[in-house]
Amino acid sequence: MLTRGALRAHLLDVRLAGVVATSREVSLRSYRLFAARDPRVLIGIDPGGEWGQRELLGLMADRCGVSADPRDTSGQDVIDPDRTLAALDAFADRLAAVAERRAPVLLGTGHPHRLLGFYVALAEALSAAGCTVLTPAQGRSVDITTRFGLRTLVLDYVRGVASVREPAAGHAGGEPGVHTHSPLPVRTVLAAAAETGGPLPELVIGDHGWVCGAGQLGFEAIGPADTDDPAPFVGEAEGLVSVAVPLDDAVRPEYYRPLTRYVLNRACLSR
Fold first, then answer.
1. Cys staple from 221: which of 114, 177, 211, 245, with CB 3.0 to 4.6 Å?
2. Distance between CA 80 and CA 68 in Å, rounded?
3. Beta strands in the chain (DSSP E)
4. Could you count the other beta carbons within 10 Å of the beta carbon of residue 60?
5. Please, what is the end-to-end C-alpha distance for the chain in angstroms?
6. What is the per-residue pLDDT for 249?
7. For 4-15, how does the pLDDT look when each residue is reduced to its tens digit (9 = 90+)?
8. Which InterPro entries does the annotation name (predicted)?
9. What does the DSSP 8-state code read for residue 151?
10. Concatenated DSSP letters for 56-95?
11. β-strands 149-158, 18-23: how paired?
């Protein structure tokens, strides 16, 4: 059983929290773009409030622990591990609630190379608890605009977790491997579920556009977010996202395993 103290030490040791790899320059650029309502950083959230750079910096300082000083413009960002732990507790509590109801869930990631294993473990635990892990729109094409132009990707599920892959990649039971911030995949999935008249998720678990896009559409959504992704935290502040967990979302996949053990144990979903 992983103690809270041991997890805190792990967060700092592998830089999931504490001094993280995300640079201050990258984070501040994201805040500027969000303040300008750039869809690349809104990732599905349509903010109702006035979120200028100063307000965003204050929010990220409060939710993540980054420096609130606008004169701090270089170096590495910092995430307060105690804020991460508190958010993981809230995340686990939402898992426990949906498992108790045996409610349908949807899991998806824009970070399949890093976070797929984390979500797969959650999907398997929730399925074992009696939840239906939804997999609508398998194989459906999604046109996503990138800086290189329009890109057609294909929705795929790996052990219950959705992401997008290249059309020519095929499905071999491994990770699809395409990184995206777009909310279009989750919108496509939810629309397909509604079209078929099947169950809709009572909880969406994911990151980037998955958590923001689902939350904006009125679905309860939870997931991790880095310091250069203000959208989930704005969504949380405005009541669109249920839980945003501050952590580095691009470390080695095995570094997330202790987090998995911790949240599943707290949610009473450990095997």
1. 211
2. 13
3. 18-23, 76-79, 105-108, 141-146, 149-158, 161-165, 203-206, 221-225, 243-246
4. 26
5. 12
6. 95
7. 999 999 999 999
8. Phosphatase_SCO2771 (IPR031423)
9. E
10. HHHHHHHHT-----TT--SSEEEE-HHHHHHHHHHHHHHH
11. unpaired
Report CA torsion sign: 52, 54, 58, 63.
Answer: positive
Can you tell me the distance from the alpha carbon of 28 to that of 77, in angstroms, rounded to the nearest whole number?
Answer: 10
pLDDT digits (tens, 9 = 90+) for 76-108: 999 999 999 999 999 999 999 999 999 999 999
Encode pLDDT of 118-138 as tens digits: 999 999 999 999 999 999 999
Whose structure tokens read 């992983």? 2
The answer to whether the beta carbons of residues 164 and 113 sit under 8 Å apart is no
How many Å is the Cα radius of gyration of the chain? Answer: 17
Spatial CB neighbours of 95, under 8 Å, sequence gap ≥ 6: 122, 125, 126, 203, 205, 263, 264, 267, 269
The residue type at 86: A
Looking at every residue in the chain, the average pLDDT score rounds to: 94
Report pLDDT for 172: 47
- Per-residue model confidence (pLDDT) at position 2: 86
| Degrees, nearest 5: CA angle 57-62-68 | 40
pLDDT bracket for residue 271 (50, 70, 90): low
Residue 177 pLDDT exceeds 80 = no
- One-letter amino acid identity for 152? T
One-letter identity of residue 98: V
Cβ atoms of residues 83 and 225 within 8 Å: no
CA of residue 146 relative to chain centroid, distance: 20
